[in-house]
What does this fold into?
Amino acid sequence: MKIAIDCRYIGKSGIGRVCEGLLDHLDYEKNVYYLIGDIDKLQKYNKAILIADNTNPFSKKGLFHLQKKRINRECDCMIIPNFIIPFGIKIPVHSVMHDLIFLDVKETVNGKIDYKIKKYLLKRAMKKSKSIACVSNFTKSRCEYHFKKYAHKCYVNYNGLSKEIIEYQKNHPTEQKENTAVYVGNIKRHKGLKTLLNAFSEVEDPTLKLKIIGEREGFITGLNLNENKYPNVEFTGRIDNNSLFSEIQKAKYLVQPSIYEGFGLPPLEALYLGTQPILSNIEVFKEIYEGFPVIIFYNVKDLSEKLQRNSQNINGLCERLLQKYNFQKFADKLLEMVNY
It folds into this structure.
């Protein structure tokens, strides 16, 4: 089978990491894969056919620019690791639905027109896709709520741990803990960074540090991210993966204060690296991390108090985590639906 994959998401936050997780676990001898995206980022997949396309998949140009004539002519189907299906694709499409935040949290869109555009693209993905991999039961339930007519196409397919973090952990099984909490992600409003900063401002321990790791530009946040306002807080910006894994592994806690997520990869990676996550009390976290040693917080004061407690030693979870959250399973299930 000849399968096209939109890989323009590589390097773009969580979706990019899911896309890489898929590509790293494909059998390139069994099928012919057409990988569309930045050639420099795709070089390691040299057994595939690489198609250069550096357009932003979230842009208007990205919606129309894809080499659709070649894809339609040469490929049997296409995998889209998101809900944005480029116009002009006529072959069957298999998409991945991470969340429906644009419909569930109106503050994440820029007004009525932006809301209508995103709702149209989400509905189009639901209608046009032959199958829809939902990264959690929570996301599947939101698809059923908003698009009941097309929800029969949905199935749950959990994200996994990347080959890169597995290799890193093998080479760095333990690291000395520091009196540091880390936040990993962008600064979109639904990520709850305001809650975290408010909680940290109430921390009485002068030695506790907070590191905020990730993109800090171009989002609606309602925050003044002036470092001078937040003593003991370091805004690192984006860092390479090895540095990221090191920062997570050294930390006392990883904090994920989101008000909405479709899955939430950083806490999974923290558990794998032996760092205890502190998570907000939202439905998807209770689904994904049920039975694992995470700490749930309920408000700003509660988070502030829990940040100052001693964390547990949670090493030894790797095998158990991989049994449940594995990108090989993710890729196999996606291809099973492609061949269904």
